[in-house]
Specification:
This protein is of the alpha+beta class and 102 residues long. It has a domain of 65 residues: 30s Ribosomal Protein S19, Chain A, CATH 3.30.860.10. 25% of the residues lie in helices and 14% in strands. The protein has 2 helices and 3 strands. It has a 3-stranded mixed beta sheet, with helices on one face. It starts with 12 loop residues before the first helix and ends with a helix.
Length: 102
Amino acid sequence: MSRSSKKGPFVDLKLFKKIANLKPGDKTVINTWSRRSEISPEMIGFTFGVHNGKNFINVKISEEMVGHRLGEFSLTKKFLRHGGKIQKELEKKTTASESTKK
């Protein structure tokens, strides 16, 4: 559910202060725990280290990301694969076909 349009986008004030201290082309990573903050046009070109619960994921902000939240680009769960007998058989077939091609 989106935030009310009369309230405007939510951006943590600490992020704005950190951005104000840096130059637009600066390569430093801004670490943040504020995954709920929306990406504003002032953030374009900066690199944020967004915390995923375990470590910081570097996210370089581009124009297409404006309006999204920082947490959308730092996944909290690591996808390994779908399990089961069928998946194992498919993986065996692909590894066998790759070894015969070599």
